Amino acid sequence: MALFCINRYGGDEEQREDGAEAENRARVLLERLQQQARARQLKKQEEAQPEQDGGERAGAEPSGGKRKRNRESEERPRAQARGKLEQKQQPRGSSEERAGSEEAAGGSTPSKRKKENRRKSKVPQERTGTDSEEDTKQQENRSNFKSSKRKKRDEETEAAETRKKEDSERAEGNQSTKDEPSVAASEEEAKPPPSSLVVLGDYDKKPVQKVQPFLPQWLAQPKLVQKRIKDNLVPVGDVPGIHPRLLKKLQMNGIESFFPVQAEVIPAILQSASNGYLMGRGGYRPKDICVSAPTGSGKTLSFVIPIVQVLLDRVVCQVRALVVLPTKELAQQVSKVFNIYTDGTGLKVVLITGQKSFAKEQEMLVQKKVTGYCSLADVIVATPGRLTDHINQTPGFSLTQLRFLIVDEADRMIDDMHQNCLNQIVKAAFQVENGSGSNMLFQRTQPGPITAASSCYPQIPLQKLLFSATLTQDPEKLQQLNLFQPRLFTSVYSEKKTLGEGTETEQDTKYTLPEGLSQCYVPCDLNSKPLLLLHFMLTMKFSRVLCFTNSREASHRLFLLVQAFGRVTVAEFSSRLSPNERQRTMKEFEQGKIQLLISTDATARGIDIKGVNYVINYDAPQFIRTYIHRVGRTARAGEAGVAFSLVLRIQERKFLRMLKDAGIRDVKKHPVKGNSLKPLVQQYEEALCKLEKTVKNERAQKRA
Which domain holds residue 124? Predict the structure, then answer.
């Protein structure tokens, strides 16, 4: 303990330097204690006054005792302050004495040691006494501080209450005089005052403007074609420039009037070749043409008629026109139309789709003579894959005299990565042939800037004609085709519709559908979809129905299920069948021998199937273009047709949003009650058992 006391109170030089500050603090404490003592004396005097007024016990002794007590209370704080100063000085002296005693000789007497121990024991006792006094003083100061805070709070609350009372009195006085101004004043008081703080990130909501795409002029200002076919038919004789031989052909086929697309596009193509197919109008390169029109609007005839008319005067057989189509069935359909109008003209049309062997197709295209190879085709209708094979592998096959390049279903040709095929066609068309003579006169090179040297030799121009019901509006994709000053003929434009109150609204549409088409969707569950199809066929007596699925496996299973159910003549159409089987089923369906044709998207694009009354989307399409091409198989050439879509309840919101984004809003909801499906359940369960057996047998046959 002695060492602790020495180190704490007397051993540090820093404490000596802080002695002056300690004295100042002691003086402040003395003044505070004196004030507290005076306050206590005043309280005691106030309490003692009524006792003195009572009178009888007042005397000299009590008064003398009180004076002594007052003197003692005044002397106590003075004595405590003196004691503190002495305590701060005593440790220093004791430490000096102890240091001197330790430096002295070790032969100290025991009496001296006893005295030193007594002094050391007195020091901690004095320190403990002073510490306890300091603690009591700190507690008193804290209590005084808390009491002062409470007093301030009480004063503030009292002031607030007085203000409220004054405001209420004023409000009552104002109400007695004027009621309306008082209401306004109360509302103003209820509103908080405007703050001067600026809220970061706060902004007023503004209506978001739609971003208008910047399109080239030919896309932004196209040639508009009427949508309504029946109301805008043009007689064949009113279209200028058609050859009389072709007019007879049209009359023989029962065509007395042109559709709006045909009436606009046929004169445009004929005008670009008015000086013959060897040169463009005025010696310039003709403009390319793009056509976007709904399904069944007559796009095929709009390029067949002018091409046949331009090639009527040809002398040497060369490949002048090339039609590229995505599917074999569509290529067969287009080749049939060409054969009808080239019959008796001497023009030769060759179909290249891979249905025949490669050697037979080579014999149809090229013939080898003593002077070299000569072409046997004026018009070629082909699919992309087979065409590229002949460009690379067939000797003597040349496209250097190609005048028209027709790309039907152009959007699919771009999206399905057939762009390489188109590039190869253009490269083959401008390929330099080895040889000399008269052929060098019309040798053409890649088009470039017009100069004096390039204009010295006439060149056969290559004109591109693009057709589609869902032609893309993306300039980046269209730029890949390297179109030359293109012209766009489109029936996709916004129409003004009058509402019930007489207001007109513009309805923006990205795609157009046939005029006579009515659209419905049926919300359903996955298990009830086959029952709904049978309900349409048996209960509602649908006939000549084209049903679409998303895969060939789904179409095959649905075909087996309906076949096992019975009572419906059904057939399937997919890549599982050979080309000959496809042709046979298509003929039987057109003849009415088949009531229900279950197909994949192989028949969705471009194929003109006569007499389709209903289209059923058994599987909801994932893309809007697929939907448009599917439902476009009915209501063709201005006729009426109905399209049903079986949509799962999970897909309903997405399906409707897809149609809304495309501008298709006239789709009706057609729910089917479960009671109407109950008569079919028992026979349907038996058909499921049969289906299971047939699927097992087919798997066993594949393994074998």
Answer: 1-44+76-93+118-143
